[in-house]
Write a structure and sequence with these properties.
The structure is a single chain. The protein is α/β, with parallel strands linked by helices. The chain folds into four domains: 163 residues, 3-Layer(aba) Sandwich (Molybdenum Cofactor Biosythetic Enzyme, Chain A); 57 residues, Molybdopterin biosynthesis moea protein, domain 2; 87 residues, Molybdopterin biosynthesis moeA protein, domain 3, CATH 2.170.190.11; 73 residues, Beta-clip, CATH 2.40.340.10. The longest helix is centred in the last third of the chain and has 19 residues. The N terminus is likely disordered. The structure holds ligand LQZAQKY5 and molybdate ion. The site of molybdate ion (MOO) has 8 residues, from loops.
Amino acid sequence: MDSCSHPSLVPLDDALEQILHQVTRLNSLPQTLSIDKALGRILAEDVVSPFDIPHADNSAMDGYAMKAEDSTASLTVIATVYAGHPFTGEVKKGECVRIMTGGEIPKGADAVIMQENANVESDNNSLYNTVSFREAASSRQNVRPKGEDIAKGACVLKKGHRLKAADIGLLASLGLSKVSVVSPLKVAVISTGDELQIPGTPLAPGQFYESNGFTSSAMLERFGVEVINLGIVRDDLEELRNAFRKADELADVVITSGGVSVGEADYSKQVVEELGQIDFWKVAIKPGKPFAFGRLPSSYFIGLPGNPVSSMVTLHQLGFPILRKLQGEQDKSRIRIKAKTTKPLRKRPGRTDFQRAIYHTDVSGQVWVQATGGQGSGLLTSMSQANCYIVLEQERGHVEQDEEVMIEPFDGFIA
Ligand SMILES: Nc1nc2c(c(=O)[nH]1)N[C@H]1C(S)=C(S)[C@@H](COP(=O)(O)OP(=O)(O)OC[C@H]3O[C@@H](n4cnc5c(N)ncnc54)[C@H](O)[C@@H]3O)O[C@H]1N2
Ligand code: MOO
């Protein structure tokens, strides 16, 4: 271990592993929702396709459908096929049908030639047009096969998947109007601290406006849980006991901010230990070192540090994986990509550093990144201006200009 490493701090990945090991999926009852209300929700069961999509072979082009082997001859156009209006007859040798994109390939035909490659030879004395082609077709040319997108019986979306816009469309294309999703977790949010004041009211000397309850609630709303914001609780043991007991009754998870460090009024951990237990404290992450995890009688406890950036970073990096596991969500690992720094970065070995930054790509495709100014854990503007983290490895020191670093673009829950 590097001499600068703090021996009691657990490296981030180990911390996550230790914490998640103690978390089990909650057995909440699934809910049935109409698909237009299910965006962002977690599937409670696999979705299996009841049929092939497309249902039948259909045309990828506006043109003519025939037997491929016939395409060098002059053919009689026996019908016009529109999408949604299949032709019930059969295409025989010497025949073709005019067909529109999406139209079902009729019996007997196996290829489509686009109309730009066709010469229509009208004959006023005949009931039908004849058509010849500038290309010879190969079998299956311009035919979108039955089941090309989804085969009957295929598992289209897996239990634990978070529904995106395309998934809602996919459910609709399967003819499903309802879907079974996991009931939202109930998450209580508490901000602790004597110095905190509610925005919209005047500040007394020494007070600060509370912001962590707002950032946490906003992130949690986006994340799709039911947020119960219990507001500010003073640094008083009895008030904290009462608030934590109430939160424990109301919620599956109690998330607090502040009071998890070593100060004389940092009571949150003490109260959790009285009512339940602290399973984990202190992770080698900057900002956010005093992050705590534990249990109250009937809920999980997540103790975020009070500094506003620390509270956001730890909710995102440690809190969200816990919530994902509780609701049985498949964890899609975070995307990290390489970038080069436009300016040097200050960093001391010992903790994985999540510096707030802006990245962009230049014309050559190179990704560049620059920190958003001061990186103090109370500087919320550094977060507000950022579109990514620069993730600097635990034992890394200062970073020079033009050095390669890993960045983590913000996902939709924090951006
Ligand atoms: N002697 C030590 N002191 C501190 C250490 C340490 O290891 N030894 N760790 C520091 C680190 S790192 C952090 S992070 C903070 C976290 O402390 P707490 O979680 O106990 O948070 P508080 O002391 O209650 O508050 C810290 C800071 O954040 C402001 N705050 C708190 N809640 C809110 C809120 N809801 N909205 C906006 N701002 C909030 C508070 O006013 C303080 O300025 O401890 C260091 N100290
Ligand atoms: O770990 Mo603290 O969040 O750096 O200020």
